[in-house]
């Protein structure tokens, strides 16, 4: 399984935590971006299978992140996007879910929230490995 992942988050600590959890599934090809603008460049250059996208980052806002999300969905429709957010509002998360996000993870991370996402990813890796060229 050769998964190409991208983590878009301003926090190096969050990026490290996500890398750690993805390593459990053997994901080794992980690019990192600290803002949506770098993320968009990496989406276009590397065509990741999986993107972790923080909603709120310094010098950007949820609208910029939504722009990256929308562009990713349009240019790479087979890319699974997981929203990473500290925003407690279900309406915000629901907006991305309705737009096609695979799932979301709420910060601060804990074992339960990441375990839920890992279980969902595991199902996707099994069910769509051929279709998504994972």
CATH class: Alpha Beta
How would you characterize the largest beta sheet? 5 strands, parallel
Order the strands across the largest sheet as they lie in space.
2-1-3-4-5
CATH architecture label = 3-Layer(aba) Sandwich
Report the oligomer: single chain
Count of runs of 4 or more consecutive helical residues: 5
CATH superfamily label: Response regulator
What is the H/E string?
A: EHEHEHEHEH
Q: How many beta-strand segments?
A: 5
Structural class by helix and strand composition: alpha/beta
Q: Radius of gyration, rounded?
A: 13 Å
Helix content: 40-55%
Give the count of structural domains.
1
Strand content: 15-25%
| Topology-level CATH name | Rossmann fold
Describe what you observe in this structure.
The protein has 134 residues and is of the alpha/beta class. It has one domain: Rossmann fold (3-Layer(aba) Sandwich). It contains five helices and five strands; from the N terminus they run E-H-E-H-E-H-E-H-E-H. The chain has a five-stranded parallel sheet, with helices on both faces. The longest helix has 18 residues, at 111-128.
Q: Key features?
A:
134 residues, alpha/beta, Rossmann fold, disordered C terminus, 48% helix
Map the helices and strands.
Blueprint: E1 4-8, H1 12-23, E2 29-33, H2 36-46, E3 50-54, H3 62-75, E4 80-85, H4 90-98, E5 103-106, H5 111-128
Parallel strand pairs: 1-2, 1-3, 3-4, 4-5
Quick structural summary:
The protein is of the alpha/beta class.
């Amino acid at each position: 399984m050769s998964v190409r992942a991208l983590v878009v988050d301003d926090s190096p600590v969050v990026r490290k935590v996500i890398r750690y959890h993805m390593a459990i599934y053997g994901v080794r090809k992980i690019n990192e971006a600290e803002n949506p603008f770098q993320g968009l460049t990496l989406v276009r250059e590397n065509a990741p299978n999986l993107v972790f996208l923080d909603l709120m980052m310094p010098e950007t806002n949820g609208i910029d992140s939504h722009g990256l999300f929308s562009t990713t969905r349009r240019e790479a429709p087979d890319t699974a996007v997981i929203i990473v957010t500290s925003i407690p509002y279900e309406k915000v998360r629901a907006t991305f879910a309705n737009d096609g996000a695979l799932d979301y993870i709420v910060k601060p991370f804990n074992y339960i929230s990441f375990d839920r996402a890992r279980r969902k990813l595991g199902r996707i890796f099994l069910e769509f490995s051929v279709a998504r060229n994972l």
